[in-house]
Specification:
- The protein has one domain (3-109).
- It is 83% helix and 0% strand.
- The protein has helices spanning 6-13, 16-42, 49-69, 72-109.
- Helix 2 (16-42) runs antiparallel to helix 3 and helix 3 runs antiparallel to helix 4 (72-109).
- The longest helix is centred in the last third of the chain and has 38 residues, at 72-109.
- The chain is elongated, with a radius of gyration of 21 Å.
- The mean pLDDT is 87.
Length: 113
């Protein structure tokens, strides 16, 4: 790339659709940062709920970008991934709900000595 091409390159990069695509990739990347920090804090491998929210938001934006670009490979990948991310959030919600109910039942059935 020469300096003569620089203005057209800058114009290309500042295209709103390119910026949307990069933003989606940034959100998707942030899920790894969130997971890394949570794992370091816990001292074991954990996947926090925020990981799935970043996954869903990044995948949605990349899906929108892929539809604009008419890229069937990325459209298919993002649609399938979204099902998995949403399903994982549903499972996590159900597990937490059962744990809360279990704690509530345990505390209600424990009689003082």
């Amino acid at each position: 790339m020469t300096l003569d091409n620089l203005p057209s390159f800058v114009t290309y990069v500042l295209n709103p659709w390119i910026l949307i695509g990069f933003f989606g990739q940034f959100l998707f990347f942030m899920r790894f940062i969130v997971q890394w920090i949570a794992t370091e804090r816990a001292g074991k491998v954990v996947i926090p709920k925020l990981f799935w929210y970043f996954s869903i938001s990044g995948a949605l934006i990349i899906l929108i970008y892929s539809i604009y670009r008419r890229d069937i490979v990325f459209i298919t990948a993002q649609v399938l991934s979204l099902f998995i991310y949403v399903r994982n959030l549903m499972v996590e919600h159900r597990v937490r709900e059962v744990a809360v109910q279990s704690d509530t039942l345990t505390s209600e059935t424990n009689f003082p000595e």
